[in-house]
Amino acid sequence: MNNANAKRTWITGASSGLGFALAEQLLEQGAQVAASGRAAEALQDLSQQYPAHLLLLDNNLAEPLDAREAAKQISDHWGSLDCLIINAGTCDYLAIDTPAPAIFQGIVSSNLSATRHCLESAWPLLQRGNSPQVVGILSRYSALQLLDPRLPATVDNSLIQLLNSQRAALAAQAIDLTIIAPLDLKFALVSEQVAPEQWTAHTAAEVILDRLPDRPANLVLEALHLNDLWPLPK
């Protein structure tokens, strides 16, 4: 990401996979990073490497009080925010004993709540930021429509609809929005077919960070093996 050393970035879902790779690469580039996610050994190790640049936030962002507390910690440390990356690929906070059929519904539901609460909590920080940007990253898990897919997509059952519903309001505050998602969500017209690729968390993070300074409205991310980018809860 260009001028990374001027960026104060909040990344959600940062304990593993793509979220962790984004945090790691931004830190390598000199950025200040607030990483939200379940406490993990990899994040603790990263904190040892970058004690002055990495702020660990162990909050369940699907809960409004937790999201506000995370934003308060960021405000106390930096006072403002330049970039919010909502990595809504899976969910760190599903119960270990969640039945397999309920996992995907839980992923969609929790990410809808977390995205709503993060946007609300981060909004004042972004307004004080430097060329602020919101980035929403969806996997095929979180891109599923909640409950009956035959129903119309709304802000209450579709994460893509929720993010797009905020675009005009964000733009009015000079905050850019980039949505990164699978092609078949039909959120943008594309001139050519995009084939799924053998992305790793590292390569996907590298390409995403390279493209974000251009501030595209939409990017397509098609992955062959989703678990490499967004490990499912075990």
Task: List low-confidence stretches.
Answer: 1-5, 185-191
CATH class division: Alpha Beta
| Largest sheet data | 7 strands, parallel
Quote the CATH topology. Answer: Rossmann fold
Report the end-to-end length measured between terminal Cα atoms.
Answer: 32 Å
Query: What is the correct CATH architecture?
Result: 3-Layer(aba) Sandwich
Descriptive notes:
This protein is of the alpha/beta class and 234 residues long. The chain is built from 8 helices and 7 strands. The protein has helices at residues 17-28, 41-49, 64-78, 100-127, 159-165, 167-172, 201-211, 226-229, and strands spanning 8-11, 32-36, 54-57, 83-88, 133-138, 176-181, 218-220. It has a 7-stranded parallel beta sheet with strand order 3-2-1-4-5-6-7, with helices on both faces. α1 packs across α7 (201-211). The longest helix is centred in the middle third of the chain and has 28 residues, at 100-127. 45% of the residues are buried.
Summary, kept brief:
The chain is of the alpha/beta class and 234 residues long.
